Amino acid sequence: MNGTAMSAGVSASEEIIVSHIPPGALSRRTLLMGATALAGLPLLSSLARGQDKIDMRIAWWGSDDRHQKTLKIIDLFEAEHPGLTMESQYGGLIGYQDKLSTEFAGGNAPDIMQVSDSRESLIKSGRLLELDDYIKSGELNLSDANTSVLETLKVDGKLYSIPWGLASGCYFIDTKVFADSRVEEPGLDWNWDGFAEKAKAIAAATPDGVYGAADIWAPAGTRSFYPFEFFLRGRGKTAYTPEGKLNFTADELTEWFTFWDELRKAGVVPPAEITALETGFETSPIVTGRAAMYPINSSIASSLQALAPNPLKVLSFPSGVGSTALSGDKYGAFINSSMQVYVNAASEHKDVAIQFLNFVTNSPDAAKIHLMARGVPLSSKIAALVSPDVSPIERSMVDMIQYVQEHAVPEVVSWPVQGGQIQDLMQRSHQEIAFGQSDIAGTVSKFFDEAEFILE
């Protein structure tokens, strides 16, 4: 295998596509019980037809833990199919989508890839391969996959990607810092009042320069629009209307900005200058020892634990239930499809690419390498197969996924094509307040003006 890293940095964030799993779709019994071995995969049709050599490219982003596991999976796939060479293009998230867009424009995009932003525009322009015919033929076997997730990933009724794992936005907590500070760890049922209380207690009990939690606009974290959407869903709202317009008020956005600004001014979350230093997981404050709680997608569990000096635990996002701050009567988070994998519609080896998607979904040997490096496996049989081998941090991730599934509200409205731009706008808005470049009222007014222009 010819592995060439796209950039030296490790992953800065995780893809989160809104895709709710209704209660009962993924049981703890399914996840944690053993499973029988799966049947072997068929030979690649291109090679079987007598093609001596096939060269392909695959692109993804992530941390070093994910990179190394993915490279081993590719080695295994190549070993099972002599004549195939898969060049690997990987690195951190920062700059990933820009490079991918440039490659698509130049007609030399990878054959297989993750997409961080703009999947809707890539689908609309015919860049990504529709998978439905391959699923119907059995070439891509999704018989053990969670159909609820797959349904929510469809665009105009068609499927263009499969999840490489199931996940949810969550908080990682540093269990040693909690223990040393004699602050009781929160439970999965905590709310925003409890979050603020725990963060303040940690900040008060630790030396200067150690904070209770990361700021919500942490560049390597979930990014601030997703958590804001969780807050809205707790009030029975979605971030967007079905027509692609904003579905929240200036008062709600003001509440959100004010909650975080007050924590920042109280020294509970880091000042802007420290938050801005994050360039990836390795510089996140839970890894550098500067914050005890960190918001990010749960699929990064094994990678983040590999970097962190202390044992971590996965918790669900706080809710507004019983909270005076950011109140709401529902649980707002959702199960999402993490690290979706796509095929280039212009690939000369689509059948081989489909075989690879089938391999990473159903191969027991690949699963034993990958474990839960991209979240809970899509296949229920594979999830059950690897569960005995996962780490404590991944077991807590499974518990969190089960809790979210049981408590999340079902309403989901997909982001419009411009959703990534709104996400960037939210990040900039938080930064302007954090750096003192604008007050909250001015930032809220500017946000709605710019969002209206973007969505038009």
Major β-sheet strand ordering? 1-4-3-5-11-6
Q: What does the main sheet amount to?
A: 6 strands, mixed
From the 3D structure, determine the CATH topology of the largest domain: D-Maltodextrin-Binding Protein, domain 2
What do the pLDDT scores average to?
86
Poorly predicted parts: 1-43
Helices, by number, come to 20
Q: Approximately what portion of the residues adopt beta-strand conformation?
A: 5-15%
Shape: globular
- CATH level 4 superfamily of the largest domain: Periplasmic binding protein-like II
Q: State the secondary-structure class.
A: alpha/beta
Using the coordinates above, name the CATH class of the largest domain: Alpha Beta
- CATH architecture type of the largest domain: 3-Layer(aba) Sandwich
Count of extended strands: 11
Helix content: 40-55%
Kindly summarize this structure in a few lines.
The protein has 456 residues and is α/β, with parallel strands linked by helices.
Structure, described:
There is one protein chain. With 456 residues, the chain is α/β, with parallel strands linked by helices. It has helices spanning 28-32, 45-48, 64-80, 96-105, 119-124, 132-137, 147-153, 175-181, 192-205, 225-233, 250-265, 272-275, 285-288, 301-307, 350-362, 364-370, 380-386, 392-407, 419-434, 440-455, and strands spanning 3-5, 17-18, 54-61, 84-91, 112-114, 162-163, 166-174, 293-297, 312-316, 335-337, 340-343. It is 42% helix and 11% strand. The strands form two sheets. It has a six-stranded mixed β-sheet, sandwiched between helices. Strands 2, 7, 8, 9 and 10 form a five-stranded antiparallel β-sheet that branches. α3 (64-80) runs antiparallel to α16 (364-370). It starts with a strand and ends with a helix.
